[in-house]
Structures are given as structure tokens and as C-alpha cells.
Design goal:
The structure is a homodimer. By secondary structure, chain A is mainly α. Chain A has helices at 13-35, 43-50, 64-87, 93-110, 112-120, 131-145, 154-174, 180-195, 199-205. Chain A binds a DNA duplex through helix 1.
DNA sequence: ATTATCTATAGATCTATAGATAATGC
DNA sequence: ATTATCTATAGATCTATAGATAATGC
């Protein structure tokens, strides 16, 4: 006591940024393995891929599972951020979903590794308490209450639509030669119909030019 | 040569059956771990769970991955066998799909571990060259050619419907209190509509009494 | 006599930590 | 002086195999 060592709690900024970079390198390396479906890698494999000393791992995470979980969550968040950018100005839920589903395929083509992390996380990701899932659920519920979508159970519609989206992304991932935009548009028409939009309107919603795919930071 | 040692290639039957039982115990133990999503277990964990000597493993499989793959495949085959039993007499593809989807939820309630193995295998299972997937694809193609379903690309419809089915099974697995039959029926109506069946007919197809869930051997 | 299974173990791999080094801030 | 990172390593697993035992067939 009595020894003043600078502003309490104030950590040097450069060191902070360096630590954040190291952590990000670990997360990105882990995503690389998750994208290949390799969940059984060792901590050393990950630190080597991140080009980071082995012991450094323990300065950021306690267990390998903790890192893998953060890696999968970060991939989902990145994906959600892209979709949020694309739909932020839209008010009609049918249009929000039309855009979201049409872009899903196109995003897969631009960020296949990111999508692969999500695919390898399995369908359990649909139950994750992520902002994206919660947002989609609220949108469906509101659209059903307003009579824009039919039915009154948002969960069934959400899980069916979300599962279908994963299925189509899996299809695009496995078939690089397919026209992702065309596949996604056909797929979006079907999902909208499933949600209660008429066949004619669903087709019209998906016939307009799709928005641009935003860059990932 | 010259030394006759009984019928060539004829192995004692009892030993065969014992070996098959041991292998089945290993596969079932592996399925137990897969149902919990634990793909990182050791060979010793599996042999312990199967109540089998550690070294015995190597008499049946070369690597852990080989066993886990067979375990997941066996779960899918068991599931396919149940669905095949339920739909074998039906000729109208719309009815085949209606029954299949309606039963998916009910099968989940009767064999949750089996379904959990499939769920934890991820959406990649939709791409597996399994009899069930091939069969579903052919059914959709035939129904589209006959004008019973709309569209002309069976793969998009297959992946969307299959993914949706996984999503709903995930939902039922996570919510034991839900009425699986009611959820599956609502879900089946939506999928049929997505495939091109009119809303009225889809509702009618899913309003009849569902068949009994068969027992697993 | 043959084959499946079991037990024990050597060697490989992996995790967690301790102590040394490098980077930054004062 | 402080904090992040790195290197080295002890101890804990895990895998693969060798040799012993048990079950079955002749």
C-alpha cells in the first residue's frame, strides 16, 4: 500500500491489442479445424496453426472445449452480422425472410469456411440462444400475429425453416459448381410458401435483384 | 496341403455369433456416446461401456473413427428401416411423404437415443449415400415428373425437406413436454405445401389417424 | 486346434504448469 | 515493473500390440 502504480485498473492499450490479436489468432485457427470437421485436434495443433506458443493458450482459455465453443459462436455471430446489415431497412417480415434466405446461398459462396463451421456444429445450433435465432423467432411470431404468415406456433416454423436453410447450405457446400444464387432463390420461394405466403407473391418477392453481399470485417 | 481340416472356409457358427454380439455391443456403446455428442471419447471408454476387454476392439475395428462411422450409419439404417415399414404399401408420393414426416416426430419419442445419434452427426448426413436419402430423392423426382410435386430440381426440395425434418427432431428432442404427434402433423402440412401440394390437400393428408410406430428389432 | 477375448505394458501423445524471455509502460 | 508470451518438462492419458486365457469345434 502507498505505492502508487499508475491509474488503478488501467492496463496499457498496446498490450491489450496484442492480447486480443493472439486470442483472435487462436479462435481463427480453431475455426479452421471446425470447418474441416476436426473436433478432435489437440491444443498443440491449434497453437501451432495459430503460430503461437503452446503455453499461451492457457492465458486465454481454460479448456479446449471453451475455445471451440467460442469459435463456433463467433462464426454464428459473424454470419448474423452480415444478415442484419442486409435486412436492417426492411419492415415487411416476408421481405426480411426473402432477403435472408436468398442471401444465405450467396454468403456461403463468399465465406465457405464460416458456413462450414456452422454446418459442422450441427442442428443444435438452431437451439442456441443466439441473437440471430431469437431475432428470427420474434420476426416469425410478429408476422403470424399480423396474419402475414399463417399458423400460430413460431417454433415449428422457425425450426423447419432454419433446418431447411442448413440443408441447402450443406448442398451448396458440397456442390461448388451449382449457381448459388439460383438455388437460393428457388429455395427461398419454397420456404416463403411454407410460411404461408401465396405461391405468386413468394415468386415475386424472390424475382427482384438481390442486394450485394457485404464484406466481412 | 493334404491335411483336411474340415470344410474349407466354414467357421464355427457359435463363435461367429459371439463375435457379432461383441461387435454389436461396441457399436451400441459408441452410439451411446454419439447420442450425447461426445465424439472425443477414448477407445477404452467405449470398451468399458460395452463391457468388453480393451484389446478386443482391435479384433473388430482398426480405428476409433471407423467404429463411430459405423455406429452413425447403423443408427440411420435403423431409422430408415422403420420408415420403410411404415410406407411400403403406399403408392402416392404425397402420401408417402406425409406419413414419413408425420412419423418422424413420433419415432423421436420412441427412440430418442437413435435420433440423437443422427442429430449429432450433423446436416452432412443429408449428403450420405444412404438408402434412405437415395430413396427419398427418387420419390421426389418421380412426383415432380408426374406433376404431383412442383419444380424440377429434386435436390433443392430434398435438402430443404430433410433439413427441416432434422430441425423439427431437434426441437422435439429439446422439448420433451411437447405433443410430438401434433408438432409432427403441423410440420408435415408445411413441408407438403413447400413441395407443391395445395394447403387444403396437405391438411387433409395429415388429418387422418397416423399408423402405429413399429418396434425396433 | 482354432479363434475370440482378456490383461498387461511399452511407447506415443497430450495437458497443465513452472520458470525464462520478450514486449511494453513509467 | 508489469504483463504476455515462449520453451521445456513432469505426469497423465491414450493407442497399439504381445502374450495369456477362455470358449468352441473336431
Amino acid at each position: 500500500m502507498g505505492i502508487a502504480a499508475g491509474p488503478a485498473g488501467a492496463t496499457p492499450r498496446r498490450a491489450d491489442r496484442r492480447k486480443a490479436r493472439t486470442r483472435a489468432a487462436l479462435v481463427r485457427a480453431a475455426q479452421g479445424f471446425l470447418a474441416e470437421g476436426r473436433t478432435g485436434v489437440s491444443i498443440r495443433d491449434i497453437t501451432d496453426a495459430a503460430d503461437v506458443g503452446f503455453g499461451t493458450f492457457y492465458g486465454h482459455f481454460e479448456t479446449k472445449e471453451q475455445l471451440l465453443e467460442e469459435a463456433a459462436g463467433a462464426a454464428l455471430d459473424g454470419y448474423a452480422a452480415m444478415l442484419a446489415t442486409l435486412t436492417e431497412g426492411l419492415t415487411d417480415p416476408a421481405e426480411v425472410f426473402a432477403v435472408s434466405f436468398r442471401m444465405a446461398g450467396r454468403l456461403q459462396r463468399r465465406h465457405p469456411e464460416l458456413v462450414r463451421v456452422i454446418l459442422n456444429s450441427g442442428t443444435a445450433i438452431l437451439l442456441s440462444d443466439s441473437g440471430m435465432v431469437r431475432h428470427a423467432r420474434a420476426d416469425i411470431a410478429a408476422a403470424q400475429a399480423a396474419g402475414r404468415f399463417d399458423g400460430d406456433d413460431p417454433d415449428i416454423a422457425l425450426m423447419a425453416a432454419g433446418g431447411a436453410m442448413l440443408g441447402v447450405m450443406q448442398m451448396l457446400d458440397a456442390n461448388p459448381e451449382l449457381d448459388a444464387g439460383a438455388v437460393a432463390d428457388q429455395f427461398a420461394v419454397r420456404i416463403l410458401r411454407m410460411l404461408g405466403i401465396s405461391a405468386d407473391e413468394a415468386a415475386a418477392l424472390c424475382a427482384t435483384a438481390p442486394p450485394m453481399v457485404p464484406e466481412l470485417p
